[in-house]
Amino acid sequence: MSAEVELIEVRKVFGDVVAVDDVSFEVYKNEFFSMLGPSGCGKTTTLRMIAGLEEPTKGIIKLRGNVVNDVPPYKRRIGMVFQHLALFPHMNVYDNICFGLKMQKFPESEFKSRVYKILEVMDMPPEIFAKRNIRQLSGGQQQRVAIARALVTEPTVLLLDEPLGPLDLKIRQRMQIELKRIQRTVGTTFIYVTHDQGEALTMSDRIAVMNKGRIEQIGAAKEIYERPKTKFVAGFIGETNFIEGLCNSDGYFDVKNSPFKIVVDAPSEFVGKNALLSVRPEKIFVAKKLKNMDNIFDGTVEDCIYVGSFVTLRIRLVGDVELKAQVQVAESSLADFKVGDKVQVGWPKENATIVPLE
Amino acid sequence: MSISELIFEKIRKRKKIIPFLFLLLPLGYLLVFFFSPMIISLLYSFGAVDKYYHFIFNFTLEYYLQSFSPTVMVILGRSLLIAGLTAVCCFLLGYPVAYTIAIKTRRYRNVLMMMVILPYWVSFLLRIYALMNILQLLDMYVFGRLGFSVVGTIWGVMLGMIYDYIPFMILPLYASVEKLDVSLIEASKTLGAGPYRTFFHVTLPLTMPGVAAGIILVFVPCVGEFLVPYFLGGPSEYMIGNVIWDLFLKVRSWWFGSAVSTVMLAITLAVVLIYMKYGGGEMAF
After folding, report:
1. A198 three-class SS
2. Tens of pLDDT along A300-354?
3. Chain B CB contacts of A80 below 8 Å
4. Which ipTM did the prediction report?
5. Whole-prediction pTM
6. Structural domains in chain A?
7. Which positions in chain A touch B205 (Cβ < 8 Å)?
8. What span, in angstroms and rounded, lies between the C-alpha atoms of A46 and A35?
């Protein structure tokens, strides 16, 4: 696979704040790539550097194999969808979408057919919407126009800066599916910036998790979720229980300040070191009596919250370790828990991961 | 209607009246000190007041016929031309200033805007004298040797006019550029438009309300300007403001002066309305 976008040790400093700290990654052709992280992690700055709207302090940015550090944004032939859409308020839908075609000198005879075609891809009948004023559109429709405007010139890369942020939950979920469909239809490389882990997991082929200007981990959604490499990734994506302890050479994890030994599948680099064990609430089994599992511990239900499709339990193990567990309501006949119940919790060793302390 | 409904109705009506109460004071002020002098001057222009300031039942178009004489019309045309030219020059010079202050400078923008307004802390007469002195010195030692002079010519008048009115252009321009969403400019760039095309397709159209406000704020007072041509111009820069000044204070024909004022007002208003209709951006009606 050829790299459509490539960043090599890119760094961006604003004053004395390091916004992006030696970031390197590649995005391949036709990929849906997400940059995920909390606000201020440098994801938007990285995207803006790819667009050419910010200049990197150090490092190399390549588009389609060419170094573009000195190429201004209007010559990069990328599409960008802005966080607040940035639709031109003095133009109607047609003129907004046509703007890029005019500026990039597409033949005038193709303007109308291209605009109409992209509106159809967006599921907006051109006869109805072409002449509409931007202010007459709903949030979801404005979204589509912004994406259409960025896509109509057929850029090889489309950059999206949290474009679904201002929409409410229902439309946002629909637009996520729409975006994925559009991406498959046009076959463009998408680089998507978001702080919403659900959004990133739903749409992306690969995700780069960013924190404090650095990339913590790059991988497919499943890999990031199931095999987080750092404490930050494990904690930021989904919920998890952290248990501090020492990785023994015999395949056990000695819990700190506690007699517990947990059976783990620790990679060799952790052996003999202090580390964190991360186990997600939905990967923990809870029952009156468990059997045939690598780890089984006794505990007491401290808290029980009914959330509809599942029950969240807070369980204190003998020896002062607290765990959060989720139990599907489908199994609730087996798991009708009350505060104070004595229960057993457990998980097979592959359900937990070991991450470094920091 | 029950009693409670009647009370509610009364309260509702009272609530509608309150906003108008706030208008009463400024409206009354304008009525006494702005509209009434205009009406008095209108009465003068039709000869309905005698020289003892007494209202008389008289109506004549004599003063208007004098106003439409070629001499006055040429001077009025010149005034409109100088005012228009001043407005255009103020726009060309003021836009980059307003744009730079509003977009490129984050920390010092208040200080810079203060500097734009600063000259207005000094009396106009003082400033125009200062400008005259500087220009006379320049005439003597620089321009004179090159074979031309500024004071007493159209160049002096234009310099003075632009110097005096450019803040009225920069202020509304700054206000509208500052409101501009910078991501629109960025969007334009990512869509393939370079700096110039971004300016003409996005920035300028979106700041048109500021441009229109600035043009009108500069143009209207410029038409009636009389101090700048008096100090910095010569006989061939004599403007309509000077005509009115002379008619009132030298010729002492308040009737003729009022008629010329009214004609100037009407023509200026017509020009502004035409501008707003065809070039005023969002001010169009």
Report:
1. helix
2. 998 888 887 788 889 988 777 889 998 887 655 555 778 888 888 889 988 999 9
3. 186-187, 190
4. 0.83
5. 0.81
6. 3-231 (3.40.50.300), 239-356 (2.40.50.100)
7. 90
8. 9
